[in-house]
Write a structure and sequence with these properties.
2 copies of one chain form a homodimer.
Chain A lengths: L3 H8 L4 H7 L2 H7 L9 H6 L18 H10 L2 E4 L5 H18 L4 E3 L6 E6 L7 H8 L6 E8 L2 E8 L2 H15 L3 H9 L2 E4 L5 E5 L30 H12 L3 E3 L12 H14 L5 E6 L3 H4 L11 H17 L5 E4 L16 H12 L5 E5 L15 H9 L10 E6 L22 E7 L15 H9 L11 H5 L9 E5 L15 H12 L5 H12 L4 H22 L30 H5 L23 H7 L10 H4 L14 H26 L5 H33 L14 H6 L10
Parallel strand pairs in A: 1-2, 1-3, 3-5, 7-8, 7-14, 8-9, 9-10, 10-11, 11-12, 12-13, 13-14
Antiparallel strand pairs in A: 4-5, 4-6
Amino acid sequence: MLRPFALLARALPAIVLGSLVLAWLPAEQARAQAPVPAPAPAQVQAQAAAEDGYQLWLRYSPLPAGLRERLQARVATIVQLGADSPTLRAARQELQRGLGGLAGRTPAPAVAPRAGSVVLARAADLPPSPAREAQLRSLGQEGYLVQRTRLHGVEVTLIAANTDIGLLYGSFAWLRALQAGAADSLAAINAPALASRPALPRRLLDHWDNLDRSIERGYAGQSIWNWWELPDILDPRYTDYARANASLGINGAVLNNVNAKAEVLSAPFIAKAAALAAVLRPYGIRVYLSVRWSTPLELHETRNADPLDPAVAAWWQRKADEIYRAIPDFGGFLVKANSEGQPGPQDYGRSHADGANMLARALAPHGGIVMWRAFVYSPPARPGQMADRAAQAYEQFKRLDGRFERNVIVQVKNGPIDFQPREPVHPLFGAMPDTALMMEFQVTKEYLGFATHLAYLGPLFEEALRFDTRAGGVGTSVADVLAGAQAGHVGGIAGVANIGSSRNWTGADFDQANWYAFGRLAWDPKLGSAAIAGEWAAQTWSADPRVRDAVVALMMRSREAVVDYMTPLGLHHLMGTGHHHGPAPWVDDLERPDWNPTYYHRAARDGIGFDRSASGSNAAAQYAPEIARRLQDPATTPPELLLWFHHLPWDYRMPSGRTLWEELVAHYDRGVAEAAAMQAQWARIRPLVDPRRGADVAQRLARQHAEAQWWRDACVAYFQQVSGLPLPPGAVPPAHPLSYYQSLRFPYAPGHG
Amino acid sequence: MLRPFALLARALPAIVLGSLVLAWLPAEQARAQAPVPAPAPAQVQAQAAAEDGYQLWLRYSPLPAGLRERLQARVATIVQLGADSPTLRAARQELQRGLGGLAGRTPAPAVAPRAGSVVLARAADLPPSPAREAQLRSLGQEGYLVQRTRLHGVEVTLIAANTDIGLLYGSFAWLRALQAGAADSLAAINAPALASRPALPRRLLDHWDNLDRSIERGYAGQSIWNWWELPDILDPRYTDYARANASLGINGAVLNNVNAKAEVLSAPFIAKAAALAAVLRPYGIRVYLSVRWSTPLELHETRNADPLDPAVAAWWQRKADEIYRAIPDFGGFLVKANSEGQPGPQDYGRSHADGANMLARALAPHGGIVMWRAFVYSPPARPGQMADRAAQAYEQFKRLDGRFERNVIVQVKNGPIDFQPREPVHPLFGAMPDTALMMEFQVTKEYLGFATHLAYLGPLFEEALRFDTRAGGVGTSVADVLAGAQAGHVGGIAGVANIGSSRNWTGADFDQANWYAFGRLAWDPKLGSAAIAGEWAAQTWSADPRVRDAVVALMMRSREAVVDYMTPLGLHHLMGTGHHHGPAPWVDDLERPDWNPTYYHRAARDGIGFDRSASGSNAAAQYAPEIARRLQDPATTPPELLLWFHHLPWDYRMPSGRTLWEELVAHYDRGVAEAAAMQAQWARIRPLVDPRRGADVAQRLARQHAEAQWWRDACVAYFQQVSGLPLPPGAVPPAHPLSYYQSLRFPYAPGHG
C-alpha cells in the first residue's frame, strides 16, 4: 500500500528525499500482476449460485472438505455458562448460523460442556484460573479471548470476556478467523488464540440520512431507517445491520444527517429512535442523534438559541431527560454548527466551546456525550480576501483547546478540506492535547466516484491514522492522539456511512469493503489495510487464494488510481458543482470563492497549485515544527502533496526528471491505465466468482474506466488551455474539445440530501 | 365482493331499491369468519423458512407430495419446436425454474418429444391439425393454448401459440394453474385445457418515477430504474420485473412520471431507456415515456411549444425518429397537459386534440401511440364560482370525441375526481364512442393508506370495469368500452404502479396483490376479484385452503373497511394536504377551492354532501340518461355514493331507519371494527405462514387498526362540531379533542415526487 506522507512523517529527517522515490514502489509492485490460473470446471460450478450481496462478509460458505470435518468435531454443542441475556442470545445465534454454514452442521445448544463444545462464558462464570483471569482483566469492557482449553475436565473452544458484548465480539472474531483461508483457518479450528480489545471506546457510523429517507452523499438507495413506518414496523434489516456492525466492533450509530432538522427531537421521532435503539442494543450499538442548533427556537419553545441563556439550557436539559426516558443508553449528540449555513452559537457571539459545553451539561447526568464538529469555514470577510479554507478549522479550534467539558469530543475530518481523494492529515490532530478528538472519515465516496468507481479506502484511512503528528516528539500517530496519548483525553472514530437500502447495502459489492475496513480500523487503528482487504476478500468472495489474493491486489491499487485520474500531485476540489460528479476544474463563478475549483488549483500561465507556504497562506505552519519546516520547501514536500502546498511553474523540474506539466499528464495517463488494468484484472477473477456479482463488478469497472478517461481528458484539455503549453510528447489529445466537457450537465445525480 | 354500483347499473331499473340492501350482504357474509384449525407442528416447520417477498407470486414452492410425483412424470423434458428466440429462451427458463420448483425436478431441454415432454411450439411449427389450427387462429397475436395431446405419436403437454410471446404467456398460465391447489392443480397436471387471449391490446403500468429515483405517490422505496447507473449497469431486478409482468400479460411500461421533465428526451436518457427496453423486450414489454409538453422550448430548440407551429411539429418528428433509432419498438408517449400546472396546448389557445394529434403524427410512421390524459381541471374563473371539478374532464373532452388521430388514446381515470377509496365511474366512459379510451387505475395507494394499510383493490377495479355505462343501451360495460364495443376504437388499460426498490417490490406483501389483480384484469376484465385473490393467495402464501381461503376472506373485506373508516357514504377527498395521509376534513384555506376537503363534503349545520343533482352542479347529468335519472334522487342513488351526489340534512332518514348522522358514525365505527377483525383474522393465519412475512403483516395491520381509529375519531369529532349534534347513542367519544387531530403534522411523509 501507499502511505508516503505517513512514512515521511515517521522517519524524518533521514529518508525525506528517499520517500519521493519510495512512494511509488509498492504501487508499482502491485501493478505486476500475478497470473490467475484457470479454474477447474467443478469449482466454477460450485460457486455459480447467484449471490446478491445482502449477506455482506457474513456469508459463512462451507469450508473446504478437509477443514469442514475438523471443524465439525469441534462444534458439537454450544454451551453458555451463567445467566442468559439478549446479547448472549445474539452470540449463540450467530455461532449457530456461522458454524452451521462453515461446518455444514449446526451445533446444538447444551447445558454442560463436553469434548467438542464451544463455550461462551463471562469471566465471573468461569472456574478459577489465575493466568486466564489476568489476561481477561487486561481486555477491558469490550475485549475477548478465544482459546482451546480444558474446562471442567474436557477440551473445549472457549470464548470468554468480561462482558456480554465481549462474548459477541469474540464469537465474531472466531468466525472471521475460521474463514481466513488454509493454514489460518486450520489454526482457528485447532488452536485458536485470539485476544483483543479495542483501542478506542467510541467507534461510530455517522448516517447522513434525512427524515424523508433521502441520504446526503448516499449512493446506495434510500436510508435503511424507514422513519415513516417506525416505530410500528421493524424491518428485519435493522437486525442484520446490527450484526454486521457488531462483527466489526462498531458500537454507535448517529442515525440522522449532520445537516439536521428540528423535528428529529420531537416526540414522534424520539419514539422512532427508541424503537431502533431497542433492536440495536443487544448488539452493543448505542444510538446518537445529530441535532440542529436552533431546535428549541424552531419548535417555538424558546425565544432564542443563545447557549448562555438559562432558558435555552433548561430546554436542552428537559429534552435530554425526555430522550433518556425513552432511550436509557442514548449515546449523545453530534453537532454541525456555524458551518455551511447551519446555525450555531456564533450567531449569538458565543464560541464553539460555549455551545458544546451547554449541550454537554445537559447530557452529562445521563452519561451522554457531545461530538462537536470542527468542519467550519467562513466566506472571506471582504471580496478578494485570501482566507485559506484549509486553515480555518485550526484557527478557530486550536485556541479552544482545554476549554471543553469532559464529555465533549471535537470531531475532526481526516484532512483540512473535505474528504478529497488525498489530503494531508488535518493539522488539529496533535494540536489540541487537552481536548478529546474524534476522527471523521468518509466511508461513502462523495469525491471518489460514488458507487460506480471501485476505490478501496483502507489505504486512505491507514495513511491518516498512522501519520506521525510529531506532537510532543517522535511517535504520536493520529491513532495515538485519538486514544488520548497526549494528555489522557480519549476520543474516538466515526465514519460517514455508505449504507443504504440497496440490496447489497452499499450500492456496489466492493464498497462493502470500505465499511468493513473502517470498522476494523476503528477497533484496531494499527491494522494494515492490505491485511484487512485479505480478511474481507476471503469472507466476501472466497478464501481460495487465487480469488482472495487477486481481489486484494486489485483493491490495493484502486485508491491511488482514483487519485491519479482525478486529483494527482496534491490537486484537490476539481469536481463538478453540487453533485461532486466528474471533472469541472474550470468552475470559477460560484457565490463563494472557496467553492470554486479555480480557488484550489490556481492554475494560470505562470503555474499551478495553492501556495500554503510562508509566501502564501502559510497553512503549512499549522503542523508540528519539524513537519512544517519540510512543507515550506517544494523539494522536501511529499510529491503526492506538492500542489497542495506550493504554486509552481509548469516547467518546475520533478525528481523524475520530467517537468511538472509532463508529470501531471503522466499521472492522469497512469490513472486511466490503472482503471483499464483493474478491468482486465477482474476479467481474470470473474470466472472464479458467482455470475451475478461478477457481472455487476465488471459493468462498474467498465464505467469507471470510461469515466477515468473523461476525468483525464477534461482536466488535460483545461490545464493545457490555461497553461498554453503543447501536450507532452506522446500524450494522446483529449477526445473532445474543452467546450464539450464544460457543456455536460447532471441534473439528476444522486446524493443530494 | 361488493360492487353495488355495478349491480345497480346493470340491473336497472328492477333492483334499484334492492341494491340498497344487497350492497352490504356479501361483506356481512365475509365477516362471518370460518375458524382456522391449528396447524400440525410439522407443517408449521416446513413453512417456517424466512421469505422476504422478492419472489412475488413466482415462488414455485414444491407441490404436495402426491401431486409432485404426478407432475414429475409429465415434465421429463422440455422440447421446443422451430427456431429459437430470446422470448422462447425466457419461456424455457421459466418452465425450468417453475417446474423445477413445483415438481422438485428440473426438466431437461431435449430435441424430440417423448412421453412426458413439455412442448413449446408456434402454430407454424406444429404438425397439421384442423381443430387446433382453428382454435389457434381465434387466439390472436398474444393468446395461448395449453393442452394434453398426442404429438409425433407421444403424449405431451403442449403449449402452443401463434407468436413467441403467446408461448411465454402460455407457460406462465400453466405454471399458475399448477399452483391453484388440490383438484385444480391435479387437472392442470393431467388434463390442462387452457386457452386465452387478452381483451385489450395495451396493458400498461404507469410509473410515476422521477429521474432522481424518487416516486410521486410511491410507498415502496425508490424507483427500480436506477437512471444514474443506466445504461452501463443493468440491475438483474429489471429481468425479474419483466418476468412478473409477463406472468400477468402486462405488455407496456411508461418509465417516468406524468409530471415529466424535459431531460427524459435528451440523448443520455434515451440511451438509458433503450437499455431498459432491451432487457424488457424478450418479455413482450414495450417502453413508453411520459413527455412534458414544453420540452423543445425548455431545451431551447424551438421558440414556443404551439402544436400548430410547423417548427414545433418538426422538432417532435425529429425526436421521434431519434427515439425509434434507439428503441425500434418504442410504444409511444403519455401526456399530462394543461393539468395541475403542467404546460399544454391550451397555453397557445389550442385544444387537447390539437396537441395530441401533433404528437400522434410524429409517432404514427413508427407505429407509436399517444396516451393523452383526461385528468384536467382548472381553478374557478372567478372567486366563489362553483365549478365542479368532477365535471370538468367531461366538459372538456366530450366535445372532442372523434377529433383525435387513430393512434391517440384518451386516458381516463376510473372516477371523476382522483383515485378515492370509492368513486362513481368516470362519465367519459361510454360518452366518447368515436375515441379510443384507456382506463387509468391507481395501483399505488395514494388515498388508501399507503403501504401501511391492507386494502385489496381487486373489488375497486372490478366495480369500475363491470359498470354498465348504458351507452347505446343495456350491456356496454366499461370493459366493453375499452375494448372498442361502441365503434371499434380499441383502447387499453393502465395502472399507476406501486412498485419500488423495496425488497418485496411494493412495500407491503399484500400490495403485491394489487399489482397482480391489475395485471390479471388487464388481460381479462371479466375476471372476478375474489377468484383473482384466490390465485394470488395460493401462489404467494399457500395453496393450502386453510391459508388461501382465509387470506382471500381477509382481502375481500379490506377495501370496504378503508371506505368505511375514511370516506363512507360517498364522501371523498377528506385527507391531509399534500401528502394525503390521514384525516383533515377541516382544511379550508388552500390556494384553490377545489383542493380543500370542505369543498367536497360541504358539511354545515344544514347537512352534508356535494349536490351534483340538477339543483347543484348537475354533474349527475353527464351519465347516460337512465343512470342520470336515478342519480338525481337520493332515494334511487346507491347509498355508498349518496353524499357524492347529494347534499342532505343530518336527519335525513336512511333505508336502515337511522338518520344520516347515525349512519355516518355507524360506518366509521364499522370501519374500525373491520380493521380490528382483519388483525384478528391474520393472527389466526399467521402460524401457517413463514415468520418473517407473518410478522410484517401483523405489524402493518396493528398500525392500520390504530390509524382507522384515528380517521374515525378525527372525522367524527369534526363532523360533530360542524353539525352541532350530540354523538348517536352508544357511540364512543373520540379519544382526543378536535384540536389535537388538527395539530398533527407529517412533514416527512413519503410519496412526494
